[in-house]
Specification:
The protein contains nine helices and seven strands, in the order ββββαβαββααααααα. By secondary structure, the chain is α+β, with helices and mostly antiparallel strands. It has two domains: about 100 residues, 3-Layer(aba) Sandwich (Glutaredoxin), CATH 3.40.30; about 120 residues, Glutathione S-transferase Yfyf (Class Pi), Chain A, domain 2 (Up-down Bundle), CATH 1.20.1050. A hairpin with a 2-residue loop joins β2 and β3. α4 crosses α7. The radius of gyration is 18 Å and the shape is globular. Bound molecules: glutathione. The site of glutathione has 20 residues, from α1 and α3.
Length: about 240
């Protein structure tokens, strides 16, 4: 069997807007796959029903986008992938944009054009950037490490993230970036909050408070619970032992 079926069983008939649809999100190992987490959270925020299929990433070809089982569903060789009645979307941000169009009433982007522009800039900054934090702090929901002597690039990125976390929220009021409901931008920064917890990164009080909001959001908690229940060591990368 190539895939592990998680959650609600086989394909079901789903309804979003007026359309009946079948949506399946293919994800990687939940403890490690931060890209998968973002799309999954946004689908959860949307309220649309969907099936989740976990593909084992600890396999031959990992890191080269050459895992056979991934290539069978993803032209880029990466997850997450959304399959909507045969339409394949193979990028986490593109998936979230599509879900926002399927569920316009859920305000997955802020309604005000100015706030929406800022939300998109924040999301794009995360999607394309913070490569140093991502490299030295691989996403790992299970491990806990004491703070390391981070290099200059990483320290600079941590400062930028601290500013994003504290200033965005304080400008708009509310628990999340743009009010009291999470948006796509919040989903994109949730894996950073998780990394900061895993690697013991010290933040300003305001930034830490935002991280705690993200890490206590109910859909994140559901993801984390499923991740820890399914965890097994990842052998194709040193993520479980990186700072031993
Ligand atoms: N830009 C892609 C990146 C996705 C990505 O890198 N996914 C990782 C898992 S978290 C992957 O599939 N890696 C497979 C590999 O490196 O072989 C997105 O946003 O979806």
């Amino acid at each position: 069997m190539l895939y592990f079926l998680c959650g609600s069983g086989a394909h079901r008939t789903l309804r979003a807007k007026e359309n009946v649809m079948s949506l399946t999100l293919y994800i990687g190992n939940r403890v490690y796959s931060s890209w998968s987490m973002r799309s999954w959270l946004v689908l959860k925020y949307s309220g649309i029903e969907f099936d989740t299929l976990v593909i084992e990433l600890d396999a031959a070809g990992y890191g080269k986008r050459q895992i056979k089982q991934v290539l069978e569903i993803s032209p880029s060789g990466t997850v997450p992938v959304l399959n909507h009645d045969g339409l394949i979307i193979w990028d986490s941000l593109a998936i979230c944009e599509y879900v926002a169009e399927l569920a316009p009433d859920r305000e997955l982007w802020p309604t005000s054009p100015k706030a929406r522009a800022v939300a998109r800039a924040l999301t794009a900054e995360m999607h394309a950037g913070f490569t140093s934090v991502r490299t030295v702090m691989p996403h790992n929901l299970k491990s806990r490490w004491v703070a390391q002597d981070w290099n200059a690039d990483t320290r600079r990125e941590i400062l930028r993230l601290d500013a994003i976390f504290s200033k965005t929220r304080n400008q708009c009021g509310g628990r999340f970036f743009f009010g009291d409901r999470p948006t796509i931008a919040d989903a994109f920064y949730t894996p950073i909050a998780s990394r900061f917890r895993t690697y013991g990164v010290t933040l300003s009080d305001d930034a830490q408070a935002y991280c705690e909001v993200l890490l206590s959001e109910p859909h994140f908690l559901a993801w984390e619970q499923a991740a820890l229940a399914a965890w097994k060591p990842f052998k194709a990368a040193p993520w479980d032992t990186i700072y031993q």
